[in-house]
Amino acid sequence: MTAAVFAVEATDGAARTGTVATARGTFSTPCFMPVGTRGAVRHLDSSDLEALGVEVVLANTYHLMLRPGAATVAGLGGIHGFARWSGHVLTDSGGYQIYSLDPQVDDDGATFASVYDGSRCRLTPADAVEQQALIGADIAMVLDVCPSAVAERPVVQEAVRRTALWARRGRDAFLAHRDAPQRQCQFGIVQGGVDTGLRRESAERTVEIGFDGYAVGGLSVGEERPPMLEALEACTPLLPGDSPRYFMGLGDPVGIVESVARGIDMFDCVLPTRLGRHGTVLSDEGRYNLAAARHANSDEPLDPSFPDSPAGRWPRGYLRHLLSTREPTAARLITLHNLAWLLRFMDQVRAAVRTGTLDDLRAAVALKWA
Amino acid sequence: MTAAVFAVEATDGAARTGTVATARGTFSTPCFMPVGTRGAVRHLDSSDLEALGVEVVLANTYHLMLRPGAATVAGLGGIHGFARWSGHVLTDSGGYQIYSLDPQVDDDGATFASVYDGSRCRLTPADAVEQQALIGADIAMVLDVCPSAVAERPVVQEAVRRTALWARRGRDAFLAHRDAPQRQCQFGIVQGGVDTGLRRESAERTVEIGFDGYAVGGLSVGEERPPMLEALEACTPLLPGDSPRYFMGLGDPVGIVESVARGIDMFDCVLPTRLGRHGTVLSDEGRYNLAAARHANSDEPLDPSFPDSPAGRWPRGYLRHLLSTREPTAARLITLHNLAWLLRFMDQVRAAVRTGTLDDLRAAVALKWA
Fold first, then answer.
1. Active-site position among A12, A92, A212, A303
2. Which of A95-104, A227-236, B126-135 has the lowest mean pLDDT?
3. Is B359 known to be catalytic?
4. For residue A196, is it within any domain?
5. Among A140, B51, B335, B348, which one is most buried in terms of CB atoms within 10 A?
């Protein structure tokens, strides 16, 4: 069995920088993982991801199991052969998507409708393991119960209980799988909403089962930042220091540095790509809307302080024109810029941890991105 | 004044291969010019065009004069600075778009509605010169009157008369322009529908005025191939052999080789890019629809006999999946493939003319693309 091996290179308070080693190879942390829901980051291909220096991409079990089907992906060599991508792939379990579909959930699993044709689908913790083994992710997530951001305490409590039940079943299914343990790592997921007591309980129950890494789920779903960080602080100290920690669905600069300062190593988010498609640009001066009229005649690049941006060749006036006439080239180039900007930001985060200057970076980020 | 200089390197019957030299540089003919209506080939950028080996791209005066406005393009260095493209640009005059907008046309110009906001716009032959000078195309097209494919003879006759009138005014405006003659070439346009007599008349009247090159307009707009080729044969012998000849709006392999055999040097068409966006793939075995279920599990590239395709890395099963889930990456990769395939086809056309084997190529193309 190949577990993820997390080697810490340097720490700065609770923050760490290091390397995660899997059966596929290694990647550096803290890292940001772009989201390629259906096997491609929107507008990009695997050669673009290589050029960006992406080390891990996230794909979506729910979407891939429905279209084209996990068996089709397996038949084409798994997600790596399918998408011709030799870097790491992490697949979520499908849980998060399912909970937006008003599913029927019982202790054995969830029944929900396909977004493609409305057909009824069933997913159990063991099914999630099997689907992700077929897809061939390097890191598979256990099936969890992700309550709504505004759920009452009893609902969150029940989600924590069922998440722990499913974590046990998912872990057992993974360890008993014919080949998954040789090829994949499996991460557990801590739930508990913004309730610090439930967060602690969920962390303890997940760690008790034992995974290759630990995710914090169900945060950054609409709550304010202070309760989010409190919930994070409640559970991260309980997660083993020698395993990677992953904050699911967070990707804004302030959120990233504040989470890294609390011991988080991995992030994913649709933010940089979704914002990019809609014309919002990440830059060293904060984010701005390229559609604003003041950019119409601008010969400046998207971020003058980032000359190596993959979109650095083109003037704002041109990119704004393509954006306002809905030319897909605009969405592509701004997506490339935003991802490159965020990956460069992660370089700065890792460097800050290495040099013990994370607090300076946090202060600088708070100034620009408050 | 810098005119286009056309140097013929080899001929095969009426077909020629050679080089067009402009103030910007040179490009090889017969050539295919991808269409970048609003200043970008859909889904692509100028670095993609460089990688494809594109030498000339077509942009659209009508669209650029409305959005972002020709003055904005001029302010950012003209279309080359705007789109950061150092290859050749040819702009159409706007006439073709205008005639799809039910314009009011008189001997002085056309009045039409903007597709963007419905506002009334006016374009005269001199306006078309000025707009294209601001946009900074290397090759500007004269404003013409392009009748419908099903127009009656009197309508076509009137279009030929007015096209000649506008050609004279457009040429005079161009030659009197403050800097266009130093930077640009100007091409005249032959109209006449499928009436061989009107085609001859239009060719004679256009040549009499004298342009740097000559286009055949108003064909490949829905008519059958035999009358199209007859109309072409009626006018091409009347166009000067030492000037480039351009078939507007044609881009299918049979049409290309048959037109090259009749002395055409330049082509543009939305076909390879529009087909690509909708999942139709050009290949050495003809074209096919990637959405077909038989490709779902295929590990083959789009065209196994074209391993250097820019999409050659990915299996059909993956590209079909992205296509059927409407991921824009599919449109981009198939667009890249189709353009690369067609540009490689033009390499084959030029080689056939050089080696005197165009008839063999015509026969082979007719077999695959009938």
1. A92
2. A95-104
3. no
4. yes
5. A140
In the structure, what pLDDT confidence band is assigned to residue B218 with cuts at 50, 70 and 90? very high
Which two three-digit tokens encode residue B87?
Answer: 């290859």
Flag whether B31 is in a domain.
yes
**Measured between beta carbons, which residues in chain A are less than 8 angstroms from residue B315?**
76, 81-82, 84
Percent of chain B with pLDDT over 90: 92
Is B77 domain-assigned? Answer: yes
In sequence order, the 6+-apart residues with CB closer than 8 A to the CB of A61 are A70, A91, A92, A93, A94, A128, A131, A132, A135, A141
CA-nearest residue to B312 within chain A is: A84
Cis ω before A30 (30° cut-off from 0): yes
Per-residue model confidence (pLDDT) at position A2: 59
Task: Judge whether residue B366 has pLDDT over 70.
Answer: yes
- pLDDT band, residue A1 (cuts 50/70/90): low
In a shared domain, residues A242 and A335: no
Query: Two tokens at B370?
Result: 């009938």
* B128 sits in which H/E element: helix B125-135
CB–CB of B329 and A296 under 8 A?
no
- pLDDT tens digits, one per residue of B239-268: 999 999 999 999 999 999 999 999 999 999
Active site residue A179: no
B67 → closest Cβ in A43, A299, A321: A321
- Do B81 and B210 share a domain, yes or no? yes
Query: Are A318 and B43 an interchain contact pair (Cβ–Cβ within 8 Å)?
Result: no
Burial A188-199 (b: 16+ CB within 10 A, else e): bbbbbbbbbebb
**A–B CB contacts, 8 A cutoff, strictly below:** 124
Q: Which of B297, B332, B333 has its CB closest to that of A72?
A: B297
B346 and B200, same domain (yes or no): no
B338 pLDDT more than 80: yes
Please answer yes or no on whether B38 and A322 come within 8 Å at the CB atom. Answer: yes
CATH number of the structural domain spanning residue B259:
3.20.20.105
Same domain? For A205 and A176 the reply is yes
A316 in a structural domain: yes
